[in-house]
Design a protein that fits this description.
This protein is of the alpha+beta class. Helix content is about 20%, strand content about 20%. It is built from 4 helices and 12 strands, in the order H-E-H-E-E-H-H-E-E-E-E-E-E-E-E-E. The chain starts with 7 loop residues before the first helix and ends with a strand.
Length: about 210
Amino acid sequence: MGDPTVSAEVEEAITHLDTYGYCILEGRISGEVADSMTARFLEMHADPELKDQIHGDEYYQTLFGMMNREDRVWTCASHPDVVAVARHFLGDKARVAEACSNPTWPAAPVGPLHTDDGAFFHELPGVPWLINSMWMLTDFTEENGATGMVPLSHRSGMKKPPPEYGDDSPFIKAITGKRGSVAMWHGGMFHQSRANVSDQIRVGLNIPYYPPWF
């Protein structure tokens, strides 16, 4: 029997992540809140006083420390459905390690296919060491470069993708969704930021969860 405090939809998401390495929880914040957060995040990325704290280039950027910059990030990080998924795989003491904004501008090229923090291990552990999440503050579409993932790759036991997995590999699946939804995935998944060939900025909020031993 499943956890009686967890909805059937969340149980299904847990099963999907366990099987395929990722899941999507739809509509966990409203479109209006997502739009407002998008506007606020882009203001921060345009703020000259924050320029030295922003990593990346004119196409893809990361601003860390979002828990201390925008109160609504706490709402996302502590969302009960997201926490339930993270705790299922990492235990009741799973913790948030960081929160960062990730705008991707039009013409952004494809990012490298990778795993999360696999390089920290001599040999990957047999249990999840990280459950990552990406809140879709704008729609994530094929055109604007929605995160690409290789389903089932979290079961490979490999710290990084094999060289034959190129950027155009047919095994890479675009993880699309409406603004206000959140994608979650196992740290061992092969994934990438895909090219933004649209005329729209894609904005995400990345929040990883770790077990206390890592």
